[in-house]
Amino acid sequence: MRSPQSSLPSSSNASNRVPFTRRRRKTSKICRAMSSNTNSKSLYLKTVDGNENLPISEIGLGTISWGDESYGFNKQYREKDLKETYRKAKEVGVNFFDTAEVYGYKNTKFEQSSEHILSRCREEEAEDESEVVIGSKVFTIPWTNALLGGGFRLGKESLVLAGKESVKRMNNRPMDLWSIHFPFPSFSQEVLMSALEESLDLGLTKAVGVSNYNKEQLEKAYDILDKRGIPLASNQVEYSILNRKAEKEGLLRSCQDRDVKVVAYSPLKALKTTEIAEKYVIMNKLCDFIGQVNSGGKSSVSVMLNYCVTKGTIPIPGVKKVEQIADIENAMGWTLDEESLLTIDEKMDYLDGL
Question: Is pTM beyond 0.70 here?
Answer without folding.
Answer: yes
